Each structure stands twice: as C-alpha cells, then as structure tokens.
Amino acid sequence: MLDIKYIQENKEKIKEAAKNKNIDVDIDLLLKIDEEKRGLQTKIDELRAKRNELAKSAKGGRPTDEQVKKGKKIKEETVVFEAELKNIKINFNNLIIQVPNVISDDTPIGKDESENKVIRKFGEPTKFDFKPKDHMQLGIFHGIIDTEKSAKISGSRFNYLFGEAVMLQFALIQFVIETVTNQSIIKKLADNVNNPFDKPFIPVIPPVIVKSEIMKKMDRFDPIEDRYYLKEDDSLLIGSAEHTLGPIHMDEIINEKELPIRYIGYSTAFRREAGTYGKDAVGILRRHQFDKAEMESFIQPEYGQTEQDLIVAIQEYLVAKLNIPHQVVSICSGDMGKPDYRQIDIECWMPGQDKYRETHTSDYMTNFQARRLNIKYKKTDGKKELVHMNDATAFAIGRILIAIIENYQQKDGSIIIPKVLKKYMPRNIEKISKKN
Fold first, then answer.
1. pLDDT in tens, 39-53
2. Is the pLDDT of residue 436 over 70?
3. N or C end of the chain: which has fewer CB within 10 A?
4. Is 432 helix (H, G, I), strand (E, B) or coil?
5. Where in the chain are the domains?
C-alpha cells in the first residue's frame, strides 16, 4: 500500500502508473475522501478539546446544569461525527488498497505480455538431429511422470513423480540451497552488480497455510478465485513460499546492522489456475500443486533495486549452471502485479514446445508490502523507516524439470543428468534410461 501523503504529492504519477498497469482506480475520489476524513477528524478533535475544557471549568469537579447541557450536546455531536468518520474510513481503506505501486524508470510501458522486453540471452535453443519429444512423452516412456492416476485420485492438474524425477527434484533443492548459502558465491555475484552485501540466505521451510488478513496485507489475497480458500479457518493455502516468508517480520523493528535479511524457502504451493481452462492442461507446467524454492529479502530503501539485481544474477547463475538456454525479460507495466515496482522474469527454452517459457520471476515491491505488514528498521541515527522487500523464484520445480528433461534428452529417449546435479543424485546416476 502506498502512503496517502505520497499519493497527494504524486497524484499524476500514481494515475499514470494505474493506467499503465491497466488498473481502474479513482485517485481523485480517494483524495477527496481523504480530505473529508481529515476534516471530520479535526472537528472531532475540536469537540473533544471543548469537552475537556468544559470538564476543567467545573468548580469543585461539579458541573453546573448549563455545563452538563453543553457537555451532552458536544457528546451527541461527537457521536454523529464519529459514526460518519467510521464510514468514511471504510470507504477510504477500500479505495486506497486498490492503488497500485508506481513503476521503475526502466520498466517497459505496454498493455500485456506481448510488449515485454528481452534484456539478454544465454545460449541458443537446443538443436537435435532427431525430432525431440516433450516432457510428458519422455516422462511416460521412463515411468517417472503420471497424470492419469492423479486425475482419478485428485482431479485434473495434479501429478505423480516417480524414481529419477523425484531424485532430480531433491538434487535441485540441494543445489540451490548449497548455492545461496555459500557466501563466496553470493559475494562474487553481488560484486558483479555493485551490491555491497555478501550475506548468504537462510534456509526456511515455512507454513503452507496463511490467514486471510495476512494475505491482504501482502496484497496477494486477490484474485481469490485463484486461491484455495479454507472457509472454516478464514485462511488460504499459499501459492508460493513468499506468502508466509514476506510476513515473517510483521510488526517488527529490525536493527539496520541486521540488514539485509535474506531467506530461501522451500514449500509446496497451491493455485487453482482459474481462467486457464485448456491452457497448458497437458503436462506439469501449470499444476494446482507444485513445489518451489523461493527467495525473500528485506533491505534498506537505497539498496532495494540493487538487491533485485543480485537476485536476478542468482537466478541466472542457477540456470546457467544447468546449462539451459534462457532469456532474461523485463516485464512491461500491463503484465506486472499491482504491488510490483519492477519485475524481471527468466524464460527457459522448452524444446517440446519449441519456445521459451517463464520459469523464474523476480518482484521488487519497494515498501508497498512492508507498509501494511508494518516492517520497519531502526537506522543508526535512531530514525525508523519501512524496509524494502524483494521476492523471487529460485526454482519452480515442475517447470525446471521440464526444461531439464526436454533439453537433455537423447535420440534413444534417455535423459542425461546435468553435470552440476550429478553429485546430488543417488548412486551417482548420470542418465535416466529405459528400464527393461
């Protein structure tokens, strides 16, 4: 959420951001309601002051009949104004939470994903001297992916992983945790993007259920139709570890010397994928349940964007180590989220689809989430200020498994294990081969 004072001082900038993000919100109405709210509060404060003065003027603590009459009238007026203020505050709060974050100067202005901008590329699309199979053909061939049994048992958009697919999943988790907890690797990547902090990430296994009120503070409650809502508990299943990592320091004041605080969370995530009927229904790209390693960072405002640069550098490092062709994409205004100030994605080459698909995202929210979560830090001069927050994908397991299976397939249908993952595979398995 943006500060109302900031909105007052940057009205046109906020209107432009809303327009560019395709968000319909009446900024003028918000400011009018805010003015009414402040006016009513002033009246209430003045009436309370009058009542206090009246109480003080009572001789011996015993008010006269005239003073009682005046006090009663003031109280009645105050009650009326307080009721009016309560309604205005509801309207104000309902409107201000619709206001989007502003966008960075380097964010492309565009209406939808077709206007996202490729910043750089790694490698060339994988070439084969045979017709490549997609991940489901290979998964079924090796008996490592099954969506038919899961459809009978759990419904559509669920899957079973077996054997080497499971081994690959945990090899990926070992690889990412070993990477982001390695201070020397973080330092090297931080130096490359002029980030002054080499602090490694703290591994976390977070809860997968979050209260509705917390998701609203995170501005991740909507679209509610895409969430799994637990009505009896007024809670939701998380759609990413970010949803319970982001609030981890809610209502806290962090000492500046502790910043940045960086977490790597691993969890199962759940999404209804509402509105995607028929889209990516085959395979494991778009599932209701999936596992994911997510990065979350809390830092001083002046380093917020540089922190995102480091996070993107980590993402690129991870995918490059897997030797998977990919491209880094700057997400345009119309395709980014309401809380986002700047969004960068990585798209990996998927031979089975003959195109790049999004596997990683990085969201820099400035203090948009921290304001409602009330996460502050204490500066060395004693002043308190809201932290800036970043969250980003380390690995969305299903998607990166697709990229590995399809890019590393061989003519005989076997799948080579990426070199960087071999040491994490049981029995040093180097290849997924057809079992007799």
1. 999 999 999 998 888
2. no
3. C
4. strand
5. 4-96, 113-432
